[in-house]
């Protein structure tokens, strides 16, 4: 995969968010960016049914975290702080993120990788992007 310079790479699971900026040209070179505070929520968005019939507290917390991540990314897109966005997320988290995208955020997502890479090194994440 080829990413534009300046593309924001968000690596997410149900508990963690890591942000990187692609500072390379044709080759992927990820520079860590500060991770914003994500609002803690007891459950997902009001009016939304969780991904399970009777979600336990962990599932609700993960869904709520994903909602918090979407709120931050939506805000950044709407204030023109993000032009291009690559999202790498655990498959379940990816589904929750998609539910919360603003239409403008969805339009700026250049690609998605449904894989849990949180906790992996920057080099491993860059390698996964290059293979995608």
Outline the structure in words.
With 132 residues, the chain is α/β, with parallel strands linked by helices. The chain has one domain (8-38, 69-131). Helix content is 36%, strand content 20%. It contains four helices and five strands, in the order E-E-E-H-E-H-H-E-H. The protein has helices at residues 57-78, 91-100, 103-108, 122-131; strands at residues 8-12, 17-22, 30-33, 85-89, 109-114. Strands 3-2-1-4-5 form a five-stranded mixed sheet. Helix 1 packs across helix 2 (91-100). 32% of the residues are buried.
Q: How much of the residues is beta strand, in percent? A: 15-25%
Average of the residue pLDDT scores = 86
Low-confidence stretches: 44-52
What's the number of domains? 1
Using brief descriptors, characterize the structure shown.
single chain, 132 residues, alpha/beta, 5-stranded mixed β-sheet, 4 helices, 20% strand, globular
Q: What topology emerges from the helices and strands here?
A:
Layout: E1 8-12, E2 17-22, E3 30-33, H1 57-78, E4 85-89, H2 91-100, H3 103-108, E5 109-114, H4 122-131
Parallel strand pairs: 1-4, 4-5
Antiparallel strand pairs: 1-2, 2-3
Task: Give the structure's gist in a few sentences.
The protein has 132 residues and is an alpha/beta fold. It is 36% helix and 20% strand. It is built from 4 helices and 5 strands.
């Amino acid at each position: 995969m080829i990413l534009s310079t300046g593309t924001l790479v968000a690596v997410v699971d149900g508990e963690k968010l890591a942000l990187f900026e692609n500072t390379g040209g044709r080759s992927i070179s990820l520079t860590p960016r500060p991770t914003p505070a994500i609002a803690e929520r007891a459950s997902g968005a009001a009016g939304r049914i969780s991904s399970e019939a009777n979600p336990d507290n962990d599932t609700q917390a993960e869904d709520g975290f994903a909602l918090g991540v979407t709120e931050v990314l939506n805000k950044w897109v709407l204030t023109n702080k993000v032009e291009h966005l690559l999202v790498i997320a655990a498959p379940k988290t990816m589904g929750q993120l998609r539910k919360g995208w603003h239409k403008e955020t969805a339009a700026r997502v250049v690609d998605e990788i449904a894989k849990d890479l949180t906790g992996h090194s920057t080099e491993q994440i860059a390698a996964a992007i290059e293979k995608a």
